[in-house]
Design brief:
By secondary structure, this protein is mainly α. It has three domains: 127 residues, MgtE N-terminal fold (Alpha Horseshoe), CATH 1.25.60.10; 118 residues, CBS-domain, CATH 3.10.580.10; 171 residues, SLC41 divalent cation transporters, integral membrane domain (Tetracycline Repressor, domain 2). It is 65% helix and 6% strand. It is globular, with a radius of gyration of 29 Å. Keywords: CBS domain, Magnesium, Membrane, Transmembrane, Transmembrane helix, Transport.
């Protein structure tokens, strides 16, 4: 199977390439693939490719691009080109990219909108970026609860938007009262009121619900879309399966990038200084933690001078603690994200993880202790590293549970900061345990 993105990148390496060649290469690619292709080439080549894209397709591609990539491209356009680009923008697209746009560009886009789209936009910006109210789709079928089946069927025939298999009913004050599925009225009599087919206790999403939790609610509902309501039970819009999939994808990408201190909106070919600055911050954090670990090692300088084998074996102790802690940390971070960890079960969970750590610590300490005994022919050295392994794995289990819970209470993302703190704790604990025991037992 051919890779159109790779083919486009290869095409750009050829000499005497024309706009027509580029347009032909991307004509069959969906907007998200074209956006990914633009992000896969140096910034200096993007304007050339952008000029080859049809005007009618440019906005869809811009929306699919990452925040930093989008901003870098917009900086290459003049005011007239930006005004033309935003001539057909709707509220949903503008809400999706607003956080990466300067205020003057947003004003240009708003001036191009009709009154209804501006209303949708103003409604959307009242919610945070990670709240369902900001993600809603407005292409839903809304009707008064008093209409009949024949009128409802006419409404269904007029709509071509995806996920349009549900009729959203409101009362005279505009408050949502329930939903009717298309399948429920297919065989109904035309004169029957649709309210008779309304499902009782139909699920809905509060507009301030976190978008990932909204995706969970949609998955459990087993329908393609759910109504999103504000605090007054007014219908804000709908949250559909497309939103849920995108929310999941963005969450996974954010976690993957945050584990290394990077932003999911980072551009592959962002300017060197900007990339170096963003990565340098976390390198500096890591350097500080490394100095802390080295400082504790320095406390046992005399011991290391007399028992050189301790220096050889130190990385084993630190590595075992780091891996054990990372396993526990990952489990707890997932539990926090899913709302599984509460005060009621925290002590039981901590006890279980300490038991797991203790069991693994004993098993692997025996293995490592036997290996060290065979290697260095020193029973006391084997006993020392075995005890240090048990202590460090127990410390890793304790830290892996407590650190993410504390960070979550402090409103700090444990997926981003937890691993840095955990590594520091397990390194220091491992070095103190191993070198401290070495000082007591081997000197």
């Amino acid at each position: 199977m051919s890779n159109p993105i790779a083919e486009l990148i290869e095409l750009l390496t050829q000499e005497n390439i024309s706009n027509q060649d580029i347009n032909q290469a991307i004509s069959s690619m969906p907007p998200d693939d074209v956006a990914l292709a633009l992000e896969s080439i140096p910034v200096s080549q993007r304007r050339f490719v952008w000029d080859s894209i049809k005007q009618t397709n440019r906005l869809d591609i811009l929306v699919e691009m990452r925040g930093e990539s989008r901003l870098l491209l917009l900086k290459e356009l003049n005011d007239l080109e930006i005004a033309e680009l935003f001539s057909d923008v709707d509220a949903e697209d503008l809400l999706e990219i607003a956080d990466s746009l300067p205020d003057p560009m947003i004003e240009i886009a708003l001036q191009k909108m009709d009154a209804k789209q501006r209303e949708y936009y103003q409604q959307g910006v009242t919610y945070e970026e990670d709240e369902a109210g900001r993600w809603v789709d407005h292409e839903l079928i809304v009707a008064a609860q008093t209409i009949r089946v024949s009128e409802a069927m006419r409404l269904f025939r007029r709509v071509s938007a995806p996920y349009s298999d549900t009729l959203y009913l409101v009362n005279r004050t505009g408050r949502w009262v329930g939903c009717v599925h298309l399948r429920s009225i297919l065989n109904a009599q035309p004169h029957e009121p649709v309210s008779g087919f309304m499902e009782e206790e139909y699920p809905f999403i509060d507009a301030q619900t976190d978008v990932v939790k909204a995706a969970d609610l949609l998955e459990k509902s087993e329908v393609s879309a759910l109504p999103v309501l504000d605090s007054n039970q007014l219908l804000v819009g709908r949250f559909h399966a497309g939103h849920a999939l995108e929310a999941r994808r963005l969450e996974q990408e954010a976690v993957q990038m945050s584990n290394t201190g990077l932003d999911e909106d980072s551009d592959l070919f962002s300017p060197v200084r900007r990339s170096a600055a963003s990565r340098g911050f976390w390198l500096g954090i890591n350097l500080l933690t490394a100095f802390m670990a080295s400082a504790f090692i320095g406390l046992f300088e005399a011991t290391l001078e007399q028992v050189v084998a301790l220096a050889v074996l130190m990385p084993i102790v630190a590595s075992m603690g780091g891996i054990a802690g990372s396993q526990t940390l990952t489990l707890i971070v997932r539990g926090l994200a899913l709302g599984q960890i509460t005060r009621a079960n925290f002590s039981s969970l901590l006890k279980k993880e300490l038991q797991v750590g203790g069991l693994n610590g004993i098993v692997w300490s025996l293995c490592i202790g036997a290996a060290v005994l065979f290697w260095f022919q020193s029973p006391m050295l084997g006993f020392t590293i075995a005890m240090a392994i048990v202590i460090n794995i127990l410390m890793a289990a304790l830290s892996g549970v407590i650190i993410p819970v504390v960070l979550d209470k402090l409103k700090i993302d444990p997926a981003l900061s937890g691993s840095v703190i955990l590594t520091t704790v397990t390194d220091i604990a491992g070095y103190i345990a191993f070198l401290g025991l070495g000082t007591l037992l081997l000197l």
